[in-house]
Amino acid sequence: MAVMFAFRCDGEGDAKPIDVSGRKAEDLVQEKGFVWIHLNRPEQAEMDWLKDCGLDFVVREALDAPETRPRCSVHEEGLLINLRGVNLAEGAEPEDMVSLRIWASGGLVVSLQRRNLLAVSDVHEAFARSIAPRDAGELVSRLALRLADRAEPIVAELNEQIDDLEDAFEATGEPPARSELADVRRVSIMLRRYMYPQKDALSTFAIEDMPWISAHARERLREATERVTRLTEALDAIRDRAEVVHDQIMDLRAEATNRQMLVLSVVTAIFLPLSLLTGLLGINVGGIPGAADGNAFWVVCGLLVVLAILQYWVFRRIGLLK
Question: Max CA-CA distance within the chain?
């Protein structure tokens, strides 16, 4: 069941739920405070309201886009910003990040999500307790901070996983399972794919010259930008550490392969002259030495043993065998 909720904030930290059905966006805007309208997994009726409420076509298209990447752009007197949050739904993959599309102006904020985001639920609960931001910029900063808060445990868990893999590798010398290492690398790469542009989007939002963004909101936006930056740097470090462990595993496997190839080469080098000698003695022509001597077989076997020992000694001297 889709849920659309709306709050009117008085600009002093208090918020009251309101009904926006059948109302135009311009009628909701007042001189003081702002209105936050949020569409959660919107149904067709709510999308029809979004179309009929009077919002600009560009804004409606941005809110209803099927796929989004984090970005921030100016449109008339407002800002369009797309953010991403980790997917913490039961049975979901955290790296399958959920998009949050926001249109923010001085008196109106409209946000839309197609899947559940716990960060939005956190802000919604604060509104329900009448703990509201004072302007639209502060609301966006709260959403960004909660998105970062929800992502931090996932990044910390990845960091612990790579720590465990490195410690186990150093302690036992046994390489970790390739699937475990691949999962860490995959998740870190996919999270960073959206975290990095999200940092730029928040930074752009904070520096835009919009009169309705207060100094306090800009400070909180900068804090959100810093936290996303730290998460991005942590993901970079996790990815690099996973790559180092992968390189060490590949080096170990290459070294083991080289040792095996060396053993095969030495065995081949030892038996090659022996095979040549026995092949010469086994050709079906006359004049083979010792063909009429009953002890010749044992003499040849002794010569082969002596030749093998001599080759082994030579290989030891030149360092091919230890």
Answer: 121
